[in-house]
Design goal:
With 479 residues, the chain is of the alpha/beta class. It has two domains: 2-351, no CATH class; 366-478. The chain contains 22 helices and six strands. It has helices at residues 2-11, 24-39, 53-64, 69-95, 103-106, 109-115, 121-139, 145-158, 164-181, 184-196, 198-212, 220-227, 229-238, 247-255, 257-271, 277-295, 304-320, 324-340, 342-351, 366-381, 400-403, 433-439, and strands at residues 389-392, 409-412, 425-429, 443-449, 458-463, 475-478. It has a six-stranded mixed beta sheet, with no helix packed on it. α6 packs parallel to α19 (342-351).
Amino acid sequence: MWAIVFFYLLWIRFDQIGIKPFHHDETINYWFVLDMWKSGFYKYDPSNYHGPFLFYIFQWAEGIFPGGINTFRLVTVLFSVMTLIHLFKWFYQRFGLSRVWLLGLLLSPGYLFFSRSAIHETPFVFFSALMMTSFIDFIYFKKQAGFRFFLIGLLGSALLKETFVFNLIGAAIILINKLFLASASEKEFFKASLLKFKFDLVLFFILFWLFFTGFGANAQGFFDFFKAFMPWFKTSVSGGHEKPIYYFLILFFKNEPATIAMLALSIWGLFKAGSEGLVRWVSFWSLFIFTIYSLIPYKTPWCLISIQVPLWISGAVVLVNLSNRYRKWVTFVLLLLSIKQVYFFNDLNFEHPTQKHDYVYVQTHLDAKVFAESLILQVQKNPSLARAKVQWGTAESWPFPSWLNLFVNQKSALAPEFLESDFDLLLVDFDKRLEVEKKLKGHFLKKEFNVRDARQKAVAYFKKGVFTCPFNACEEFLQ
């Protein structure tokens, strides 16, 4: 029965993949991929704070299954499935844990919600999980192959987000402690492993260099990676998304009760007198990551899963080291808390993905989805519309330049300051509409609509006879 539940919860992650509007960050990622199709490579920008790896995967995926951002979402969902399968397989092989313990993560509202967005977090979590489990294999189970997979996890993480340093620092602290207390035979094992995998280390740096330099097309990209940390540190302190230190803890308490149980297990594993080395240090690692993310003022809710999965790894390690009696009770509590998440899981991801919720953050509004999808449909019915003149005259043009990239004559220029004399579609900020309308000449359809939360309404003007109203009704404007 648990096998059926497990694979069902993996399969439904792909269901209704396009139900929520494209997020602001997804459309920016798509813009980078569109640029890659033109230039042939990804030019790493140190102010973007994201590595090149995911953009190449997105491009390769779109080359096989054209579909834009929805194709990219399939990629990130696949990474979430890979993470869950890896954790189940690893804990079953190492400790004999059944699928039941993983139910809370399978039914995590946040883990699924952010997995179904074409952003870097889900692939980053996969490589972070691979990094942690492989490190445990190498350090504590003395499996030499663990070092190779640790390098793969480290490379994948480093090619995705600068926050890989948190995971790496945690691993370095554990390794230093282990080496300090290691016996002569253990030190010999570590030395032999480094010699055995010296080619892997060389390959690590070659691949790192290739991706950051656009496979040799932008040599500066390698040096820009190291430059990125200074602006990244500045942004992390005052980047416009400042939240209190307890922000992630509140998100867990409100939306992820099963993860709170894993957090409690990790704290128990760290402080319990007589804790075995593996239990204590893996608990330290996940709690170290949690603490660092909490201390940084700049916080967005999707970073939650970068904290959540390490807590599930350490919590499960503590779980298997409890006595049989306590393990059964804790597993039962985990099961109840996991079932409690079912409503949030379904409602947030399959029924009301744009409702007011902690996870729905700077999310594009359904009005914008109706606007964009209607225009796409109009172009599909009348391909000549793709040559219509489009001006994004709002202070922030995203998500439309990439979402509606099928318009070949589009530009972003603030209105009314740089209002084009002739256009077929114009979008302006609500507070600029009166100034804009003084300069308009002609017959238009007009509609106010929401673009995303934390942003004022936009007003669209469609030239009469060119476009039909994308909404149920539009106001006519003639001047």
